[in-house]
Every structure is written in structure tokens, then in C-alpha cells.
Design brief:
The chain is of the alpha+beta class and about 280 residues long. It has 10 helices and 9 strands. About 40% of the residues lie in helices and about 10% in strands. The chain has a 3-stranded antiparallel β-sheet with strand order 3-9-6. Strands 1-2 form a two-stranded antiparallel sheet. Strands 4-5 form a two-stranded antiparallel sheet.
Length: about 280
């Protein structure tokens, strides 16, 4: 445990450090929240409004994986289930073909979670037709992407990265499929699962799914989002994230989630180790 003098010294050091970073990147906002019960240390830094909502991007994958774990504990599905149990052949067509062999029947839920299914990534992988997604988000700002359109993007414009279980390849497309599995198994939309299973029980009243829901507290403007020098915060095309990271949240809400996650209040603690392994 730190003494009072040490705590104040650390806070001054942090303030100086983050102020320097913000001065170099004045275009962007910075929010830092540290709360350590073990060290009895709390620190909060914000270059703008404190606890301002922001787009959490791929941190959202942790929420998606948590929903899967909750469903597993209810015996609604298994990590080892082939995803072909939940999709038709047409839905999986041309997503898992590698060196002329189709592996769609071999892909499991666990492989999607762990980014080892071999599926391409609509967000960053190269394309063999048209513009990459990073450019489309800016050039087609009014486009609102549906989950199935995101999967279709990979199906028609990209190639599989490897054999399921034999390669690690980070994939937003894989997490879109997980979101669709959650909807199929639960019988309700992905965003409702987030609110019913996580946001509401944990009192995360500033958190919601962009384009799909609203927070319990009144809506606030969220921080700017920069993509290749363009602020895309108000673009409809930001809908490309969905179950791969389309959540708006705050530092305080994320701290509530992290505490519940670590304390085993969302699912049994033995699953935390697996969760830590698959999140990158």
C-alpha cells in the first residue's frame, strides 16, 4: 500500500505525463481511470469532460465473449459446437475455403472466439474487389452496415487466412458470426442481450449499442473517433463494428464491468482464464 506522500507524487507524475501526451495529440481526447483496492490508489485524468462516453471499439469483443460464456453456463451451447449447428451451408459458403478445401464443418465456437477459425477480417484484411473497409467507412459515410452485409463483405472480397485451429488471425468477421450465434441461441437481438445480461444488472447506465439502443441515463455526446485523419463519430458507416465493438461506454461503466468480470459475478471464475487467453 502506498503512503499519502507517494500517492500524491504518483498522481503528479501521471498528470505531467498525460498532459504531455495530450499536447502532442491535441486533436484527440484522453481519459484515464485507475482504481486499485490492493494499493488503495485512485486516479482520474481527463483532457475534456470527466467520464465522457466513448466508442470502446474492440474492447467490446470482451462483452461478446462474456455473453457466450453466460449462454454456456445455461447449457444453451458449447465451446466445442461446430458453428454449422447454427448456420446453414449458404450462410457459411466461401468463408472458410483455404487452398481449395472448405473447412466450414470443422470450425467451432471456440475457434471463432480465439481468432483461430481461419476466417478473414473485413476491417483490415486486403480485398480482391473494390475498396478496403477502412476507406469505405469514410467514402460511404451514410452507409449503415447490417451484420450479414459485413459477413458478405468477407465472403465476396476476401480470402480465408488458414486452416481452422492451425492459425491465429484476428478477425472482426468471426466476432460478427459470434454475435449472430448469440441472437440465434437466445432468441433476441444482440443489443438486448447486452442490456439484459450485462448493462442493466451491473448498473452500467451510460452504456449502449450504437445505432441499436440507448443508455438508461440521458444520451450524451461521445468522444470523437479518428480514422485516417477523419472524424467518423457521426458517420452511419460506424455501424461496421456491431458485436465486434459497437458499444458506447464510459470509464466508470467499464470499471464496473471489469470488477464484475474479475469477481466471477457474470460467470464462474474458472472461465476467466480462457477468456484472458482469447482476448487480444
Amino acid at each position: 500500500m502506498l503512503n499519502t506522500t507517494s500517492i500524491e507524487a504518483v498522481k503528479r507524475h501521471f498528470d505531467k505525463y498525460f498532459n504531455k501526451i495530450h499536447q502532442k495529440n491535441a486533436q484527440s481526447s484522453i481519459q484515464i481511470l485507475i482504481d486499485s483496492e490492493k494499493l488503495d490508489f485512485q486516479y482520474n485524468y481527463s483532457s475534456e469532460d470527466s467520464n465522457q462516453p466513448f466508442h470502446i471499439a474492440s474492447i467490446g469483443k470482451m462483452f461478446t465473449a462474456t455473453l457466450i460464456m453466460i449462454l454456456i453456463e445455461r447449457n444453451s451451447l458449447s465451446l466445442h459446437d461446430p458453428i454449422s449447428n447454427y448456420f446453414t451451408n449458404i450462410e457459411l459458403e466461401n468463408l472458410f475455403i483455404f487452398k481449395d478445401k472448405d473447412y466450414m464443418k470443422e470450425v467451432t465456437v471456440e475457434q471463432l472466439l480465439a481468432h483461430t477459425s481461419g476466417i478473414g477480417d473485413y476491417f483490415e484484411d486486403p480485398v480482391n474487389l473494390g475498396s478496403p473497409m477502412s476507406k469505405l467507412i469514410v467514402s460511404e459515410s451514410e452507409k449503415k452496415w447490417t451484420p450479414y452485409e459485413l459477413v458478405e463483405f468477407t465472403r465476396k472480397r476476401q480470402k480465408a487466412a488458414g486452416i481452422p485451429g492451425k492459425v491465429f488471425h484476428y478477425s472482426d468477421t468471426g466476432y460478427i458470426l459470434i454475435g449472430l450465434i448469440i441472437e440465434k441461441v437466445s432468441g433476441k437481438p444482440f443489443h438486448e442481450n447486452l442490456h439484459d445480461e450485462i448493462f442493466t444488472p451491473l448498473g452500467m447506465q451510460d452504456s449502449y449499442m450504437l445505432f441499436y439502443s440507448e443508455p438508461k441515463n440521458p444520451l450524451q455526446k461521445f468522444q470523437k473517433i479518428w480514422l485516417n485523419g477523419t472524424d467518423v463519430k457521426d458517420f452511419q458507416s460506424l455501424s461496421v463494428d456491431w458485436s465486434g465493438g459497437g458499444i458506447i461506454s464510459t470509464p466508470n461503466d467499464l470499471l464496473s464491468f471489469n470488477r464484475a468480470f474479475r469477481e466471477g459475478r457474470l460467470f464462474h471464475e474458472e472461465k476467466i482464464q480462457f477468456m484472458e487467453k482469447i482476448q487480444t
